[in-house]
């Protein structure tokens, strides 16, 4: 099973995060403040009048990775990075961050792009294993990449998972891979639900645009949102469908769903690209985004913050893509100390009308 986000010994994680996350670009929890102009909160929706729930508490009780392949201390490393796609700004920003950080530290980095195809990512990773890098970073397309992670471990290569997990019953944390560095996707979903309650006063018929089927963020962002809206009987997800984390799919899926659910008054998208596609679909349907239909999403991209500032997107929960500094900090810490927590959870902000404009310039 995946290690729960309530699960790393407090002092150990704090120390690890100080090293692995010291160059984190995200601000502390609750940076968003009150989300823009909102209708009067429904009396039976406490979420609509609550404060931003912010980030989850740091996980506790997470074990240390001690049984994974070791990494010797060296001045520089040959490193490989299996990226799952390059079809959206988030992925491009993550890859750029990895490249920039590797160059700054003098590491030799090889990057592959799976083009959002799981079979290709498996082959990419097999090819990287054959090159015998000192360390391997993987951004898994879905959780079903456990077997190839096991292959890397069997070849003696320490694996570090970025932004998504794999099936822990197949690839064991701290054994077949060193650690997974992620945001708390469940909490992101809960914060998105809070923003939706604010945007709608606790009454809405919601279209949900899910991410790639089987991926960690799609699974957990749905889980967190669904759990949180149980506080508000007036918030109803009338239909939920994957749009594969892309803008084009977000638009086409929303166009279809608006036709079959013309009474929809809100859209929850698992990422900004789908949300921006949905906003285009709302306009094409002759409706006004931010007025006729409220939209809430996750990621914190520059285009999304611009849409928040324009009043078309109510809020977006940050999921920071700049993994380079913490990824290489964690790798180097593992080489020095021989252990790190098997899970590192990052902090994210929430962007709304109160703070979007001043953060556009520094967004990805």
TrEMBL record:
Residues 79-334 form the Periplasmic binding protein domain. Keywords: Signal. This is ABC transporter substrate-binding protein. Residues 1-20 form the signal peptide. Pfam families: Peripla_BP_4 (PF13407). The keyword Endoplasmic reticulum does not apply. It is found in: Cell envelope. PROSITE patterns: PROKAR_LIPOPROTEIN. Belongs to the bacterial solute-binding protein 2 family. Its main location: other. The keyword tRNA processing does not apply.
């Amino acid at each position: 099973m995946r290690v729960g986000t309530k699960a790393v010994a407090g002092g150990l994680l704090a120390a690890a995060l100080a090293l692995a996350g010291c160059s984190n670009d995200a601000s502390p929890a609750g940076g968003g403040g009150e989300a823009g102009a909102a209708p009067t909160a429904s009396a039976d929706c406490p979420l609509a009048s609550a404060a931003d729930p912010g980030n989850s508490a740091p996980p506790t009780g997470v074990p240390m990775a001690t049984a994974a392949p070791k990494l010797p201390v060296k001045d520089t490393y040959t490193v490989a990075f299996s990226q799952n796609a390059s079809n959206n700004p988030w992925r491009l920003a993550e890859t750029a961050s990895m490249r920039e950080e590797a160059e700054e530290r003098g590491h030799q980095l090889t990057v592959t792009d799976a083009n959002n195809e799981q079979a290709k990512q498996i082959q990419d990773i097999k090819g990287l294993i054959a090159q015998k890098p000192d360390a391997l970073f993987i951004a898994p397309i879905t959780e079903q990449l456990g077997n190839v992670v096991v292959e890397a471990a069997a070849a003696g290569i320490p694996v570090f998972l970025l932004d998504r997990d794999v099936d822990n019953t197949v690839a064991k944390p701290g054994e077949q891979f060193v650690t997974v560095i992620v945001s708390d996707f469940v909490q992101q979903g809960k914060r998105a639900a809070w923003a939706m309650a604010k945007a709608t006063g606790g009454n809405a018929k919601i279209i949900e645009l899910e991410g790639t089927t089987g991926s960690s963020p799609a699974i957990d962002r749905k889980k967190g949102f669904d759990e949180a809206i149980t506080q508000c009987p007036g918030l109803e997800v009338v239909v939920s469908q994957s749009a594969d984390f892309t803008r084009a799919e977000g638009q086409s899926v929303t166009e279809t769903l608006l036709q079959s659910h013309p009474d929809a008054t809100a859209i929850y998208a698992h990422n900004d690209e789908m949300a921006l596609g949905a906003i285009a679909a709302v306009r094409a349907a002759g409706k006004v985004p931010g007025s006729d239909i409220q939209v809430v999403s996750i990621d914190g991209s520059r285009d999304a913050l611009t849409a928040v500032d324009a009043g078309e997107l109510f809020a977006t929960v940050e999921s920071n893509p700049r993994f380079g500094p913490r990824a290489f900090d964690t790798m180097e810490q593992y080489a020095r100390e021989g252990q790190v927590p098997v899970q590192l959870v990052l902090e994210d902000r929430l962007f709304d009308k109160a703070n979007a404009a001043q953060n556009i310039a520094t967004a990805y």
